[in-house]
Design brief:
Layout (H helix, E strand, L loop, with lengths): L2 E5 L2 H4 L10 H10 L9 E4 L5 H4 L5 H9 L7 E2 L5 E2 L3 H20 L5 E4 L21 H11 L6 E5 L6 H7 L5 E8 L17 E6 L5 H19 L3 E6 L16 H18 L4 E5 L5 H16 L2
Length: 308
């Protein structure tokens, strides 16, 4: 059984500026944790740059070109108050999206059972028409559309357990019944979307969690609502927006998950992927801003992926 790890040094060079929570140190902490002997059998691969043809399945070509052209030669340029470009941001964003497309290719092609993409900038807030919320391109949506358009999979599902709702992924999926999106997230919280009433064409499942919700509420949301809906959808690939900022130690929100919850939910998703998707799972890093909690949670998630 093989788990692939996709990353690239360019993802460390994206620099939104001092004191920004989405810092290069996040990825450094993860990669350092994955140097432990227990992860020696992870097959590490360099993330390629995403092809423009992959990006334009999610974002209009004009937006892709405009965003890449906006990358500054020096200093910083703000897209909004939270989303900042530096000279390496374009390269990092292309590698982040390219990691997910390469992981989809490898998993669908039978080169590996599953894959984790340790990349930044994250992606799930990037809407088709605008980058936002630290995100430039919607990496996970780009991967899902590649699975469908290039590999011919009829049904692709994204499960998002980041503490923030993936408004960008929902916006791209909500009118397309061959794509499924489900999310647990703190509510109310940025970006303000993700009410239970937002159901798309029956392919969107949101379970908002109140501040201070913990393991019990999270696992009930999954077992009562999200996992049955995912099982009924019968995905041919399961993609995970793997944000770890719902951890009790994270500074940007007020949920109270721990590493055990990430182990449990990963096991549940692998089980459904085993029934419907020949075990095909691709996960991509989203949020997580306490370095210790982030690195230990990613390690816990990967232990389960590697144990399949």
């Amino acid at each position: 059984m093989t788990t692939l790890l996709y990353t690239h040094p360019a993802c460390l060079e994206h620099d939104p500026g001092p004191y920004h929570p989405e810092s290069p140190e996040r990825l450094r902490a993860i990669l350092e944790a994955l140097e432990a002997p227990e992860f020696a059998r992870l097959e590490r691969r360099a993330a390629p740059e995403a092809a423009i043809e992959d990006l334009v399945r999610v974002h209009p070509r004009a937006l892709v070109e405009r965003l890449l052209a906006a990358v500054p030669e020096t200093g910083h340029r703000g897209i909004d108050a939270d989303t900042i470009l530096s000279p390496a941001s374009g390269r990092a964003a292309l590698r982040a999206a390219g990691a997910v497309t390469a992981a989809v290719d490898a998993v669908v092609g039978g080169e590996a059972d599953n894959a984790f993409c340790a990349v930044r900038p994250p992606g799930h807030h990037a809407e088709p028409g605008r980058p936002m919320g630290f995100c430039l391109f919607n990496n996970i949506a780009v991967g899902a559309l590649r699975a469908r358009e290039v590999h011919g999979l009829a049904r692709a599902a994204v499960i998002d357990f980041d503490v923030h709702h993936g408004n960008g992924t929902q916006a791209r999926f909500e009118s397309d019944a061959s794509l499924f999106y489900a999310s647990t997230h703190q509510y109310p919280l940025y970006p303000g979307t993700g009410a239970a009433s937002e159901t798309g064409v029956g392919n969107i499942v949101n379970v908002p969690l109140r501040p201070m919700s913990g393991s019990t509420e999270f696992r009930l949301a999954m077992t009562r609502t999200i996992l049955p809906a995912l099982d009924a959808f019968r995905p041919e690939i399961v993609l995970i927006s793997a944000g770890f900022d719902a951890h009790r130690s994270d500074p940007l929100a007020q949920l109270a998950l721990d590493e055990g919850d990430y182990v449990w939910v990963t096991e549940q998703l692998l089980d459904i992927a085993g029934r419907h998707a020949e075990g095909r799972v691709v996960a991509a890093l989203e949020g997580g801003y306490n370095l210790g909690a982030l690195s230990s949670s990613v390690a816990a998630h990967l232990r389960v992926l590697m144990s399949t």
